[in-house]
Specification:
By secondary structure, the protein is mainly alpha-helical. Helix 4 packs antiparallel against helix 5. The longest helix has 28 residues. It is globular and about 45 Å long.
Length: about 130
Amino acid sequence: MISKLNDIVSEKDVVLLVDSFYEKVNQDYLLSAIFNDFSGINWNIHLPKMYQFWNTLIFGTQSYKGNPFEAHLSLPINYTHFARWIEIFDETIDEHFSGIVADQTKIRAKSIAQVFESKLAHLNKSENV
């Protein structure tokens, strides 16, 4: 019997999404090293920021204050990292949610990843000229 998944409808759902996603990131062969080794992320600080970020994007709460692109400037990341990030993000949403908001969240995540990757590639290309 297939159970129907609910859409993303609350901040509790955002916490489930973020926690599940980063649990996978921490076990990923490519992304774990960026988050844990290179960046040395303090998860007790990072996760609440991500709850605020996604609550702001999904529900318009305006709880997130910051510049997410700036946080990525010093990271040794490229298209491969962003593609893997999106793969894990989509997989996580599909495991827990189904609906319009879930679909829109995946689209928004892809858009953010594409913009970040493009801007970083441009900046790195400019630095190497």
